[in-house]
Design brief:
With 187 residues, the chain is of the alpha/beta class. It contains 6 helices and 5 strands.
Length: 187
């Protein structure tokens, strides 16, 4: 997934209750590209044919349950963040479910906007963490294979260490934002 601002993100809303799916779509359409599916099979089709960043997924649908759609998402190669938005109260089964968020209906416009923003931030964190790990591995190889003076003279190595520091700082900021948001939800 490429780094995206929230305005560029694509959100898939999946609910067999058309009025709710359309309402959720309206809630998010000002800030995101929103695709709407009225069942699990349609959701899988949209997931296969579009680059989806966040999916808001109902659990109980007659054609294919949200749990089955979620399993297909988790088995796939794409990085799609998923929030279950459902009337089903959570049980301990959600521990192993593999969704990123779990909202119990009814949900407000603000609830949906906040969860989408949080999931996009989580994706950004994951992507930057991956970049940081790769750069650190490269740095470690160079530290083993090159002498101290060689490293000190290399502008490319200096740039690499600056990029590492910048990514670490960005990750700290994102982490702080996520922790603050989490605290606010539970106050």
């Amino acid at each position: 997934m490429t780094e995206q601002t929230p305005e560029q993100a694509t959100v898939l809303v999946v609910d067999d209750e058309r009025h709710l799916a359309d309402l959720y779509t309206d809630y998010l359409a000002d800030d995101h590209e929103v695709l709407t599916a009225y069942g699990g099979e349609e959701a899988l089709d949209l997931l296969a044919n579009h680059d989806i960043d966040v999916t808001l997924l109902d659990r109980r649908m007659p054609d294919l349950s949200g749990d089955e759609v979620l399993a297909a998402i988790n088995d796939g190669d794409d990085e799609v963040r998923v929030a279950m938005v459902t009337a089903v109260n959570p049980g301990f089964d959600i521990i192993d479910m593999g969704c990123d968020e779990y909202l119990v209906k009814p949900v407000s416009r603000e609830d949906l906007q906040e969860v989408v923003a949080r999931l996009l931030k989580l994706s950004e964190y994951s992507e930057k963490h991956q970049q940081l790990t790769s750069k650190k591995l490269t740095r470690n190889v160079l530290q083993v294979e090159k002498s101290g003076p060689e490293l000190a003279e290399s502008q490319r190595y200096e740039r690499l260490t600056e990029e590492i520091a910048e990514l670490e700082s960005e990750l700290d900021d994102i982490s702080d934002d996520l922790e603050f948001e989490d605290l606010q939800r539970h106050i």
